Amino acid sequence: MTLMNDQTPMTDAPAAKATPTLPDAQVVTAVKHYTDRLFSFRVTRPASLRFRSGEFVMIGLMGDPDPKTGKQRPLLRAYSIASPSWDEELEFYSIKVQDGPLTSKLQHVQVGDEIILRPKPVGTLVHDALLPGKRLWFFSTGTGFAPFASLLRDPETYELYDQVIVTHTCRDVAELTYGADLIESIKTDELLVELIGEETLAKLVYYPTTTREQSPKMGRITDLLKDGTVFKDLGIEDGLSAETDRAMVCGSMGLNVDIKEILESHGLEEGANSDPKHYVVEKAFVG
């Protein structure tokens, strides 16, 4: 299979669905490559699959045949569902790792190919894991933006909060493209505007930063929180408070640790599905 070029437009799937040959198979319906490290793809959705926006599932491909037995075993990894719970298809946003057991193969999928999808969604980045609040923060790095791509297209996100602030930190400007395009589509897509409401979308604030390539806002989000830059830029005079602020975190291990420390220094406590609190972290994220 030939790897598509960067910024290859998403292509529609053939009308006829191929007969599945993999266990728990779903068919790829669209692929888009953003950089030599990042791509997204969409697949068919099992009719029985129900999930909450922000959850993840196990997806993958069959591994290479065993040299001795010739048998193949599935290579599966946890992937956040980037599409909202109401979408008829499932969208995923992935990093490319050239020597990665799964992503070295997954990055070459094309429309009509099959992937394995285990339809058992789980995860902590769901509204049920947070206590009611006024302001919701999404903190992400790299492909950690994926679960927020789901939540940002879910009307419930805007019904629950007066303001929704999504931060996305990447090394280069091109790595922000997926998130920037999605934010733009939310504000301009007729279906989403009708579904969420034009006035309601005014609650959405997008705060992208880069750490290597020059951009309008440079720096790690953790540093910008610590020195107060974020609050100054967004006109938030009172900073973070357990009374008003709720947060979801999905990124590198370093981000998770640093953001947790910052949130807890402001009195926020970590929650879970069974024990809602002020913030939650997706521990299954890798990339």
Account of the 3D structure:
With 287 residues, this protein is α/β, with parallel strands linked by helices. 21% of the residues lie in helices and 27% in strands. The chain contains eight helices and eleven strands. A six-stranded antiparallel beta sheet has the order 4-3-6-1-2-5. Helix 8 links the parallel strand 10 (245-250) and strand 11. The longest helix is centred in the C-terminal third of the chain and has 13 residues, at 253-265. It is globular and about 65 Å long. The chain starts with 24 loop residues before the first strand and ends in a 6-residue tail after the last strand.
* Total beta strands: 11
Major sheet details:
6 strands, antiparallel
Average residue-wise pLDDT: 89
* Number of helical segments with 4 or more residues: 8
Share of helix among residues? 10-25%
How many whole angstroms does the radius of gyration measure? 19 Å
Oligomer: single chain
Report the β-strand fraction as a percent range.
Answer: 25-35%
Topology pattern, helix = H, strand = E: EEEEEHEEHHEHHEHHEHE
Which strand order spans the largest sheet, edge to edge or round the barrel?
4-3-6-1-2-5
Overall outline: globular
Poorly predicted parts: 1-20
Category from helices, strands and their pairing? alpha/beta
Cα-to-Cα separation, first versus last residue? 24 Å
